[in-house]
Amino acid sequence: MKIAVIQLAYGDEETLEARTQRVADLVRAQAGHDLVVLPELWSAGGFDFRAWPERAQPADGSVVTALAGAAREIGAVLHAGSLIEKPVDEPGPEGRGMWNTSVLIGADGRAVARYRKVHRFGFGTGEPKLLEAGEDIVVVDLPAPATGLRAGLSTCYDARFPELYRAQLDRGAELFLVPAAWPAARVEAWRLLLRARAIENQCFVVACNTAGTHAGIEMGGHSAVIDPWGQVLAEAGTGEEVLSVQIDPAVVAEAREKFPVLADRRL
Ligand SMILES: NC(=O)CCC(=O)C(=O)O
Predict the structure, then answer these.
(1) Which CATH number applies to 2-264?
(2) Domain locations in the chain?
(3) Gene3D superfamilies recorded for this chain (predicted)?
(4) Which atom of ligand 1 is nearest to the CA of 158?
(5) What pLDDT digit, counting tens, does each position of 50-102 carry?
(6) What share of the chain is helix, strand, coil (3-state, %, to 5)?
(7) Does the reported pTM lie above 0.90?
């Protein structure tokens, strides 16, 4: 399976329309890959809380529609990163009506899965103040042409909560897709947590972070693809960059058979 991880950089100047066009073009440029992955909240701005209400959209709004077209054109599965989702007529349990939602799009341009971020980052500000929390664990068989692995969806801060990944493992996950807007200030934690999630669950990790500086926060980059042994197959630097990585889905079963640590779990 050939994967492209688009570590996008952005600042504060670009309009939503211009960024959407730029990102759709970047996705189109990944023709030949089976799976293309984008970062968290690239359309709304990961830490640009004030812009979220005006950039919020339904999960079938103009941003996802533009990307679905790009995925269809190149015949790839696309993890569209996440957006500030504001569905029509869904106020949510806390009355905020907005979620940090990831969308996985098939090569036919149709949405195959949606994940609403469970752990909200901000300690009383930002996400917990403005957004609803997701409540569902989402694990899905990757569709053609990215077939062969079952993927668990999570987002950024979720990486600090190993129990979420165990729950995904128990639903058959073999690969974790993790879009993020993780700041440079804590990038070593990001790098370490991703490897830990791969090793403890014997899963691939495909993690796509943000680069650049927006809303006064420098993003950490270091997107990575990690195998079930914890080997880093590719890692980005700190700027905008596309990682292109070939993975062998058979490595999951191989690692679990050669080193059957999961069989020793005591619940
Ligand atoms: N967007 C996020 O979830 C940021 C998480 C973060 O900065 C951290 O966990 O540290």
Answers:
(1) 3.60.110.10
(2) 2-264
(3) Carbon-nitrogen hydrolase (3.60.110.10)
(4) 3
(5) 999 999 999 999 999 999 999 999 999 999 999 999 999 999 999 999 999 99
(6) 30, 25, 45
(7) yes
